[in-house]
User: Fold this.
Amino acid sequence: MKMKDLVERFGLVDREPIIYDSNLAMKTIIQCQFCTPEEQKISIDFDEEVYPSEKGIHILNISVQEFNEKMRTGNPPDYGNIRRMINNRVNYQISLFDLIYASFCLFHEEGHWVDFENSGLSGSEFMKKDAPYRKSVYELGERIKREENQYLKVQLANKWTLLYRDIPMEKYADNHALNKLSEIDWNEFENM
Assistant:
C-alpha cells in the first residue's frame, strides 16, 4: 500500500489539501505547510529551495513500509517516542505497526492543518506562537550535528525528541493523531 492509498482510505483528500511528491516531501517525507515562502522566512530553518508556495500537507508517495523505514532511520529516538505513544493508546496487532505508524504521521500532519485552520491566524502569525520553543529545538539540533562523542550525541538526540514533542503545536498534532488512531477498528486492516 502506498501513502496515497492510505490518504484516500481515510478520506484525508476530502478534508485537507494534499500534495504528493513536492520538493518539500522529497526532503522531509511528510510535512504540513501552512505558510507561503514569504511567510516561512521567519522560520529559523527556512530553506528557499525546499519550501513550496502551495499550502497543504506534502507527502512523498512511497510504500507504507518504505515510509516507515525512512522515518525510523531518519530519527530513531523520535520514532521510538512515537511508537511508545501509539502503544499506550492504540490496540492493534503488531503486524500492522507500519500501517499504524504511517497513519499516525498522516493524522499528525492533519492535526497541524486543523490547528492552523481553527486558529484564524495567518501562516506567519501561527508559526510565531511556537517560535521560542522551536528555537531551542533547532539550537539543540545544531549542537547534535557538531557533536563528535557518539554517546553524548545519542543522549542529546533523546533530549531533542522530548523537547520537540513538548512544543504546543506538536502536542496538539500528536493528540489529534492518537485520537484518530483510537477511533479506527484496526481489525479491518488485518487481511490487507
